[in-house]
Amino acid sequence: MLGWVGLLWLIESVDAMTGHALDTFGIVPREAGELRDIVPAAFIHFGFDHVAANSLPLLVLGFLAALRGTRRFLSVAFVIILCSGLGVWLVAPPHTNTAGASGLVFGLFGYLLVRGFVDRRLIDIAVGLVVAVLYGSILWGVLPTAQGVSWQGHLFGLAGGVAAAFLFRDRPVDGLIR
């Protein structure tokens, strides 16, 4: 996760040095050519304050999600990024440009919140409860309350995280909570 967050800071540094040339990789809604920017948009930020706001939650939530394995984590992250980006592409206001890792942050939050219940693992339920206590207030971010903040990316990222918990669940043989 340190490498992932370091990459975000490196990309933002390059963006700043090039006069924000990378901002064009954000998602402009309902333009077919913008579909190719869904994945890159999760790595682009609109300034250092933006990447800083996503860094700590991404480190913490990403670390917790990655404890179950790198391959699973990357699969979960990919599903979240796709869901968040497609949601932005479909629902964001016209003529806007959306980018950033906050959709992934919300998705990891949702994934960790429900994973334990889906997998029926007590340790993951406990992790989900701790995550809910520490980061539960981010749920306000799925509401259209702040100008210039993509509640669409947050909402669809959260939904993508919940979907990923089901897609990548462990299938218990006995159905018991372990």
Plain-language structure description:
The protein is mainly α. It has a single domain, classed as Rhomboid-like (Rhomboid-like fold, Up-down Bundle), CATH 1.20.1540.10. 62% of the residues lie in helices and 0% in strands. α5 runs parallel beside α7 (151-167). It is globular and about 55 Å long. The mean pLDDT is 94.
CATH superfamily, called what? Rhomboid-like
State the order of secondary-structure elements, H for helix, E for strand.
HHHHHHH
What is the total tally of β strands? 0
Output mean pLDDT: 94
How would you characterize the largest beta sheet? none
Count of separate structural domains: 1
Q: How is the CATH topology named?
A: Rhomboid-like fold
Oligomeric nature of the chains = single chain
CA distance, first residue to last residue? 27 Å
Proportion of strand residues: under 5%
Q: Tell me which CATH architecture applies here.
A: Up-down Bundle
Give the helices and strands, then pairings.
Blueprint lengths: L1 H16 L20 H4 L6 H19 L3 H22 L10 H18 L2 H14 L15 H17 L11
Helix pairs in contact: 1-3, 3-5, 4-5, 4-7, 5-6, 5-7
Descriptors:
Rhomboid-like fold, globular, 178 residues, mainly alpha
Provide a quick synopsis of the model.
With 178 residues, this protein is mostly helical.
